[in-house]
Write a structure and sequence with these properties.
By secondary structure, the chain is of the alpha/beta class. It folds into two domains: 39-286, Ribonuclease Z/Hydroxyacylglutathione hydrolase-like (Metallo-beta-lactamase, Chain A, 4-Layer Sandwich), CATH 3.60.15.10; 288-391, Lamin Tail domain (Immunoglobulin-like, Sandwich). Helices cover 21% and strands 31% of the residues. It has helices at residues 2-18, 71-80, 96-99, 102-108, 124-138, 195-203, 226-232, 252-260, 268-271; strands at residues 22-24, 39-43, 52-56, 59-63, 85-86, 88-91, 110-111, 113-116, 142-145, 149-154, 157-162, 177-182, 185-189, 212-214, 236-239, 264-267, 274-278, 283-286, 294-300, 305-310, 316-317, 322-325, 330-333, 339-340, 345-350, 361-365, 378-381, 387-391. A hairpin with a 4-residue loop joins β22 (322-325) and β23. α1 (2-18) packs across α5 and α4 (102-108) packs parallel to α5. The termini are far apart.
Length: 392
């Protein structure tokens, strides 16, 4: 009934309208660079929400576009990528943090094909999406609700949609599940699918194994069961969640589970927009640090010192850069005019024995910063708030 109501509404609207260098992150044989980039996966830093841009050669896929606070960023990012056409738009489910910018996406780009869950959700962003969708259909776009489907882009690149049932009361479990394959590399996206939906997906016996997994429901304990993650068996997981968000996402239990299973985590809250590229075998992460060649050589949590080294042949102005403690969300800002000379290093000190000389050592605070009882990596950000490097 919900799906029928939605289709009738779309029909009604239609009638009305008629009037960088890359860092190797896989465990295979490393290379200096990818000789033939076949696919790119861009996990946009949209705060508390989701938006993934996928390039399979020249074929463009966009999965979700939210929240509203990231609308201008999403449009600008796609424009910077010189994108004019979106070959496939996948709308996992109609919550604000996944759909708020979709109306602007339709306005700004030519969307050729749309797949969504078919779930009707009467809020202002969904109504704006439906109106924009109806207009796009008049211009020749194709629309369908999710069903078992395989879209072949080339001989070794394709998109699979896994139908996971339509009788769920919880909208999150209506999420469209998609798997992207490029050669030997696979990416799985499940939207906000929760535990019950994950179990149904396992029981359906479809192949959900993937190298890269976008953590379900922004890393919530309502999803990402141990059995499901074991079934996916990812090497890497991307967690799209806002920094210090009110929901406490990702939940510590989920991060601990990924860590215990040996899964490498990339969080947009700390890494910013995450870009992975592949030739179909090797996976590499695009790193902004190539412009700086900085290194956090040591995080000494006992003596409360973090050592940062400039490996380049040029002086670096670290004005307005900052160092972040993961566990406590505590930030140290470098003083205005601080220059780290070529091949030099600096220690950021804290705790009761904190000290500084203004050149090779800088004092953060006399309070203890670093946790010795739980995961607490150090993150270094530039003045534009881009994560440059992380050290456990």
């Amino acid at each position: 009934m919900i799906k029928l109501k939605k289709l009738l509404l779309i029909l009604f609207i239609c009638i009305s309208l008629t009037s960088c260098t890359l860092e190797t992150i896989n465990n295979k044989e490393p290379q200096d660079s990818l000789q033939d980039i076949k696919a790119e996966f861009h996990f946009l830093n949209v705060g508390q929400g989701d938006c993934t841009l996928i390039k399979l050669g020249e074929y463009i896929v966009l999965v979700d576009a939210g929240p509203d606070t990231a609308e201008s960023y999403i449009i600008q990012y796609l424009n910077d990528m010189k994108i004019k056409d979106i070959d496939l738009l996948i709308v996992t489910h109609p919550h604000d943090d996944h759909i708020a910018a979709l109306a602007s996406v339709f306005k700004s780009f030519n969307v050729k094909r749309i797949i969504d869950s078919g779930y009707y959700h009467p809020n202002k962003y969904y109504k704006a999406y439906e109106a924009a969708l109806a207009q796009e259909l008049l211009l020749g776009a194709k629309y369908s609700e999710d069903k078992d489907l395989k879209i072949e882009v080339s001989e070794d690149m394709y998109i699979e949609i896994f139908e996971n049932g339509d009788d769920w009361q919880e909208v999150n479990n209506q999420s469209v599940v998609s798997k992207i394959t490029c050669g030997e590399v696979e990416l799985l996206l499940t939207g906000d699918l929760e535990k019950e939906g994950e179990k149904a997906l396992i029981d359906s016996a479809v192949n959900i194994n993937a190298d890269i997994f976008v953590a379900g429901h922004h890393g919530s304990i309502t999803a990402n069961t141990k059995k499901f993650v074991q079934s996916v068996n990812p090497k890497y997981t991307v967690i799209s969640a806002g920094f210090d968000n009110i929901y406490g996402l990702p939940h510590d239990e989920v991060c601990d589970m990924f860590e215990n299973q040996g899964v490498k985590m990339f969080e947009t809250a700390y890494y910013g927009t995450i870009v992975l590229k592949t030739d179909g075998k090797i996976i590499k992460r695009e790193s902004l640090n190539d412009d700086y060649r900085l290194e956090i050589t040591k995080v000494d949590k006992v003596n409360e010192t973090v050592t940062i080294k400039n490996n380049s042949n040029k002086s670096l102005d670290l004005s307005d850069w900052y160092l972040l403690s993961y566990a406590g969300n505590q930030k140290y800002s470098f003083p205005e005019g601080y220059i780290l000379k070529p091949r030099a290093q600096v220690k950021i000190t804290s705790g009761k024995n904190a000290y500084e000389n203004g050149t090779t050592s800088l004092k953060w605070t006399t309070k203890n910063i670093w946790s010795n009882s739980k995961r607490d990596p150090a993150y270094l950000y530039n003045k534009d708030k881009d994560m440059i490097i992380m050290k456990e």
